[in-house]
């Protein structure tokens, strides 16, 4: 199955892009994995993303991966780069791929190309199933199930421990006790993670413009987790252990204004490092992903997330408070 090229033009009134890049993004299957690859071509005085998706058919064990749109030059060892997140960037690109497939399904149906629509729908279902599994693992749903499984194992181990003691096999009893202690610790950690996702409280919202307290760049929220979901290696490089609230605080996927840091693009930032502006930030914001993640900007200068993005994170629609001053300003103009 082959999906033809789609071109998405960024509206300057939404993102204000003067310079951007053109990308070719290919989806292929290798050993049961769906893999994104990218190829970079720079354009001047345009803001165009050209993306194509192709698939070598396969049947099971689908996994979706993605690569960076921009490799970029410059100082890759800057402090801000410590919060760069490959997984966050991958998550955004996969989200775009889902949107693109859904659009193509509808387009094929409109043209009464039902066979093509069915193939696209099957591909979309395949990707959505895998993404759902990844989200369940990330957000603690699988952790809750894991905790229940460990609880059952603990009951069995307690019975084995009692039998070992009754048979005066104390060496075996000691091994069982050690195993039980490890299981109890793992079960507690899984339960805490599940509860954190269920009772998450976020200070910031999707589409909100923020500023990094330490590095100073402007950013827009495009995703969020109640706790840090990155790898231990990433957390070590980002010095998470030096944070006041550590990894057990909300973390945000943010788009970084490319005019302020063209090499960072997407960052994964702890809540304590982000600051909302005191006054509405209506200044221009440049980023190649903004055109498919947001409808545009509201009257307060923040971005309006597309419906699918709100549904992904189960976030309510944000209503901008009515300000009579805005109406008077409009009348004056």
Automatic annotation (TrEMBL):
Protein name: Hemimethylated DNA-binding domain-containing protein
InterPro entries registered for this protein in UniProt: Clp_protease_adapter_ClpF, Hemimethylated_DNA-bd_dom, Hemimethylated_DNA-bd_sf, UVR_dom
Gene3D superfamilies in alphabetical order: Hemimethylated DNA-binding domain (2.30.30.390)
Organism lineage string: Eukaryota, Viridiplantae, Streptophyta, Embryophyta, Tracheophyta
Domain Hemimethylated DNA-binding: 201-305
A Pfam match: YccV-like
GO MF entry, a single one: DNA binding
UniProt organism field: Deinandra increscens subsp. villosa
TM segment ranges: none
Superkingdom, natural source: Eukaryota
Region (Disordered): 312-333
NCBIfam families assigned: yccV (TIGR02097)
């Amino acid at each position: 199955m082959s999906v033809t090229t789609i071109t998405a033009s960024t509206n300057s009134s939404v993102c204000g892009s003067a310079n951007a890049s053109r990308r070719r993004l290919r989806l292929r299957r290798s050993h049961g994995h769906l893999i994104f690859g990218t190829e970079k071509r720079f354009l001047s005085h345009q803001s165009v993303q050209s993306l194509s998706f192709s698939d070598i058919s396969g049947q099971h064990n689908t996994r979706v991966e993605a690569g960076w749109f921009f490799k970029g030059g410059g100082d890759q060892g800057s402090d801000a780069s410590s919060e760069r997140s490959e997984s966050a960037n991958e998550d955004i690109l996969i989200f775009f791929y889902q949107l693109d497939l859904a659009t193509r399904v509808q387009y094929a149906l409109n043209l009464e190309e039902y066979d093509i629509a069915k193939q696209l729908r099957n591909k979309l279902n395949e990707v959505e199933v895998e993404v759902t599994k990844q989200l369940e693992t990330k957000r603690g749903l699988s952790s809750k199930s894991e905790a229940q499984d460990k609880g059952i194992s603990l009951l069995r181990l307690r019975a084995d421990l009692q039998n070992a003691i009754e048979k005066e096999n104390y060496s075996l009893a000691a091994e069982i006790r050690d195993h039980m202690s490890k299981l109890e610790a793992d079960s507690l950690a899984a339960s805490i993670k599940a509860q954190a996702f269920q009772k998450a409280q976020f200070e910031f919202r999707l589409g909100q413009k923020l500023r990094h307290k330490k590095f100073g760049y402007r950013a827009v929220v495009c995703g969020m987790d109640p706790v840090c979901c990155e790898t231990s290696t990433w957390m070590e490089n980002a010095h998470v252990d030096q944070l006041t609230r550590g990894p057990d605080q909300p973390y945000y996927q943010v788009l970084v204004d490319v005019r302020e840091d063209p090499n960072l693009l997407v960052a994964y930032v702890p809540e304590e490092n982000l600051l909302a502006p005191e006054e509405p930030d209506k200044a221009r914001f440049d980023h190649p992903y903004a055109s498919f993640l947001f409808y545009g900007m509201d009257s307060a200068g923040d971005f309006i997330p597309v419906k699918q993005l709100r549904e992904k994170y189960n976030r309510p629609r944000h209503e901008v408070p009515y300000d009579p001053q805005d109406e008077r300003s409009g009348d004056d103009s």
